[in-house]
Each structure stands twice: as structure tokens, then as C-alpha cells.
Amino acid sequence: MTTDPEYQIARDHWMAGRVDAALTVCQRVVDRDPGRADAIQLLAMLCARVGRLDEASAQMVRALTLKPDEAAWVQDLGLLTLQAGRSGDAVTLFRRALVLDPARAISWHRLGSLAGAGAAADGPAVLTALARAVRLRPAMTPAVIDYAQALNQAARFEEAVGIMQNAMARQPQSPALLNLLAATWRDLGRLDAAASVYRDAVHDFPQLVVLHHNLGVVLQEAGQTGPAIAAYRAGAALDAANAAIRFSLGNVLAQSGDLAGAVTALREAVAIDPDFADAHMALYVALQLLHQRPAAIGHLRQAVRIKDLFTEPCRGKQPRRSILVLEAVGDWQANVPHGFLLDPQVSTIHRLFLTEGQSFRDLVSLPPHDVVFNAIAEPDRTAGTLALAARLLEGYPKPVINDPRKVARTGRDAVAQALADPALAGHDQILVPRMLRLRRDQLIGPDAAGFLAAHGVTGTILARPVGTHAGDDLARLDNIAALHDYVAALDADHFFVCPFVDYRDPDGFYRKYRLIFVEGQAYPFHMAVSPRWMVHYYNAPMLENAWMRAEEEAFLADHRTRFGALQPALDAIARTVDLDYFGLDCGVTADGRLLLFEVDVGIIVHLLDSKEHFPYKHRYVPRIFDAVEAMLDRRCRGT
Which of 73, 560, 599, 630 is 20 to 30 A distant from 357 in Cα terms? Predict the structure, then answer.
């Protein structure tokens, strides 16, 4: 083809980035010589650069009509066709380019990317095409990234690492490639290697918030709380409008015990993004720990208004099951604290919050799940939500843990009445104080003393507002005047009242026992010893007294040391409550009977106590978790 000075001028403009000038000159060349294929191809590329895609494609087709065997031009037409959204036609063009020239790395890359897209993704074809692209151009970052991602999806993590490290040795670092390499190390469980890569990435690209954020995530997972906080803070300082990194900062601050700092970060997150449901949920947790219950419930309600389903993906490599957990909107006493109970290493957990009056979606529309765990507890607060859950689960084919209809029968007075039945086998081994549920006016009227006596409640009494736990507003009252003063001081409409039973042991100490029932089998969780009648583990002097811990250790090792003779009583409670999972707080009277304090579905079971001072708990309490896991396995198998 003869030399055309203007064509060379057009190319010079193009190479110098003077696109408009190149376009003007090139158009003159094509107008003067309509059969000059190289000028038409250049015109196509210039049109594409200024966004005239239809014209660019038309000019490329025209150039290929003149020179149909130009593989590079066929590839460029494929790229233009792909930009226009015609992926099927683009695939045909990339394949044609490779027939003409099998060494075209970009065509192999695009074929691999397109083979992996959509519902009809072809894994082997993806890997084959991307491998060819990377072999031809080992430093082509987009192809390396796509190939490494495809290898990761095939669980070929070590190969992915090798491909990326080879590319990084050949060219300047790419933040996207560094990010993927670190993520792959993380998938391999090599948090140290992941953190090292992220640190290098942050050093090379200090203005990229995502790298600071991901470094914080890996450090947090590695238990390096302080460095994680520093990484999150550095990223947050770069972007005043980044809610996600403030959410992560709030979570790690809460993990470190800095609840006030956590609340500040999380409030910044929801100020930036008021619809950040997970941040509202995290505030719900932190504010409860700070005893700011009304504010906590407010954030929970806000979270549930945004979305009622929260999914916690399984953290392990081989999930065993997916659990749908039903919850009520309320404080921690409203639901089973399943965050301590269900193992996130083996289960994906979908938390569905139920609210009265909401229109339920069909459960089929929820994420796939193997079993339903009804976590709704405290029927005195959640009666409406339990009824809602019962309607939702009526006829549902999946196994259900803790039928909500049965949970509804676990109120203090209902359980006391059921266990007081003389016909109940084991009844003679259980002391159930008469439990009355009374209105405020019944307790402050002039006939209150006579009314209580007529119902068998005399002498020293215990009173508490309905729906309370953990000793909140629980009082021991020696006379009717004290009862009047107590009721007048509280803003509650209904109260539980029962006789006080002195359950001191001969050594002068009170002992409260907590057992957890899983499928009818009792497992000891703790025993608290206290000189005070209102015994709670958090205020019992267990830490200060080695003999108390030794006694608790013996109880946890084998609860029959205290309850062996009371097995009929435990069996009677298990049969009467008839739930898959629940807790029992009780004492033992001087005459050897089980003194019922409370049956509670929402009792917390945890391993938060110090390993140094309570090593025996870390040996024995996991039996409860193992029993729950075994129950879930059996239910999922249908056995």
C-alpha cells in the first residue's frame, strides 16, 4: 500500500493522544481512498475512543471486508461487539480471531470470562481459556486476576497463589492483584501471609481505603485486635463517608471491650447510611451491654424495619447445615442467645425477626434451610410473636426445634401450675412455690393481705414484675406494707408473687444450680454459691473462693453427685416442659427436694469465664454444645 503522508499524520495524532485531530485527518484519508483498509481500521478505533460505538463497529466490519484475515481486527470487532452487549456474537468473533492467530491472549481471556458468566457457566472451559491467556501473557493483570479467581472457585488455591506471584514478579504491583492474592492466602487459612500482602499493598497504595479495611479484617480474624483497630482507623480517616469501615471498626472495638468507642463508630456508620441494618443490629448489642435498653431496642426496631432477615454465612470450609432461626424483637431475654449456642463453623444461620401484624412471605421464598430453630423465649413478653410463629410453622415440612406452642406454656405461673400436679410422676420430689400473676390494683388495695392468704401466699414473699429475669426488680418482702411500697415504686402493671422458701444449706450458704435440657437429657451448666438469698452467678463470690469452684467443678463433672436421687424430678420436668432445648434454675431444700426457681428457654449458655480461674468449665460446658449439634444433625437427617 502506497505511503500517504496524511495517514501518518493521523497515526501521529493518535499516538500523541490528540484524538479529535486524528479523527479529522483520518476521515479525510478514508474519504479520499475508500479502499484503504488500515485507515478504515484506524478510523474505527478513533470512533470507539470518542464513544461512537455503532460507527466504530460499522467501520471495523468495512475494514475486515477488505482484509478478512487480520486476526487483531477481528479481535477488536469482538471487543466492540461485547461493549454493545452482544456477548454471543462476541464469542463467535473471538473464536474466529483465534483460528487466524492462536496466540491472541486477549481473545483467550475474553472467551474465558464469557464462559464463566451467567447461569450456564462452564468451569473447565473457563480454566482452559484463561490458562492459555496467562501462558501467552503472564503479566496481563486482568487475565491473571480472572484466572486466579477461577482457580479459587475450583478450590485450587495454591495454584492461584503461584499464578499471581509469577505475574507480580514481572510487572509493577497492581492493587487489585495484591488484594486478590491476600484474599487467597486468607482462604488457605494463612492469615499471616494475607496480612503481610495487605501491609505491602497499604504501603504501595496508601490512599485506597479498601486495602486498609481488608487488612483490618484479616488482623481481626487473626486475633490481633489492636493492629486491626489501627488499620480500620487509618482507612476511616481517608474517607469521611465510608460507613462500612466504621461498622467494622465498631465491631472490633466492641470485641476489645471498648463499648463506648464501638457505639461512637457505629453511630457514625448509621449517620452516613441510615439504612445500614447490620450497623443498627451491632448498636443493639453494644447498647444492651452498656445497659441502655431503650436505645438498644430502638436500633433493633430500625434494623428490622430495613430488613427482617439477617444471614451469617458459615465460617468453616465444609458447612453441615443451614438453620433458620426465628426471633422476636426485644432485649436479650426475649430470645435464646443462640450466638453462643450454634456453631458458626459448621452452620449457616439465617435470623428471621417476626413482628406482630407483618405479612409473612412464604417460607419457600427464604434462603434454603435444613431445620428451623425457634429462638423466641419469655412468653410473658412475646406471646403474640409466639402465636405468629406457630401459624407460620403450621404444617411446615422442615424439622422444628422448640415448637412455639410449647414455648408459650413456659411462663412462670404456667410451669409452676403444671409441675404442682400431684398426679405427675416425680411430683413428690419437687417443691413448687405457689406462683400468682396479679394486677397492680390487687397488690395495693386494702384487701391485698387477705387476697394473698386466700391463695396460699403468706409470710415472707417474693415479688417481681412479669417478664423480668436475672433478679431485675426482684424483692423479698416481709409484710404487706413493704409490698405496697414496692409496687408503688415500680412502673409495672402485672407482678408475680410467691412465698419465699429458705433454701440455705447447713453451712449457711445458698446454692443455685443451672441445668440445660437437650432432648430431655439434663446437662449441668453452673452452680453458684452465695451468702445471699438472691443468688446469681455474676454476684456470687466464686472467683474469691477456691472451695466454691471445687464444689462447682464436681457438680459439672457429674451432676448426679447432687441430683442423683432427684432424677425422677428431672425426668418429670423434662416431660412436662416437653421442649427440645430449655434451661432450669433450681435449688435443693433441706429435706432433699428440688426447689423450682425457673424454667427458661432463653437461659444463656456460654464459655466466657476465664480459663485460668475456671478451667473445668471449658472441659465440661462444651458437652452442651455437642448435644445441641448432635440434636441438629439428627433432626436434619430425620431421625
Answer: 599
